Amino acid sequence: MTPAWVTAFLDLAPGNFEDGVRFWAALTGYDVSPPRGESDQFATLVPRDGDAYLRVQRIEEGDDRVHLDLHVPDPGAAAARAVGHGATVVADRGDYVVLRSPGGLAFCFVTHRAEVRPRPTTWSGGHSSLLDQVCIDIPASSYDRECDFWRDLSGWEMRSSPVSEFRSLVRPQGQPIRLLLQRLEDETGEVRAHLDWATTDRAAETERHLALGARVLDPRPGWTVLADPTGRRYCITDRDPETGVLG
Fold first, then answer.
1. What is the DSSP letter of 36?
2. Which fold, 121-237?
3. Which phi and psi (to 5°) does residue 170 adopt?
4. pTM reported for the whole predicted model
5. Which residues pair with 219 in a beta bridge?
6. For 203, which DSSP code?
């Protein structure tokens, strides 16, 4: 059951929630919706145009992380299919189902409708950028299995990369989030994920992030690894923010 939409969730530990929401709202330039949920644990980052694809959640325990929401007409049927591919159901809430991939990455099937991908933002210096990718970080021993799982689950075509430790899933037209699959040097461990930005000017975009409180961890050819004020790692890449691919 190919998802009609993909949402990235920033899961924030209680002590990081307020600072994390403030930083990511400023970084995207998006408004924060009123809180919702039984304990006001959810909020949406509302783009200036298009439909929302970034949300935040205050989690009860554990470190900051990222999970995916896959939007489908029937979460129960989608969950049953995912289990057939190796997923595990964590909780079935009726209108949404929480699962884990074979390697342990959390994701949900939900029914919320959305269809218009937000456009990149042009900043005061003239460059543009967009948060548009979730990179799934996979230990080496489970890389092939996890890649097959996300390919089969999404129905998106798998594509190799010039960089040997990466594969990507070809994002269908109109989808807000690309999925990149990274093979880690670690042999074992749990699968996790981080967020990636695309920009027309990585140097200018990096300076914009630093001014808001981020710090550079590792500049590399093609991308820069940063940490937000709460320590969450993410990347700025040289990919085109309109197409999502390298020029």
1. B
2. 2,3-Dihydroxybiphenyl 1,2-Dioxygenase; domain 1 (3.10.180)
3. -70, 115
4. 0.96
5. 224
6. H
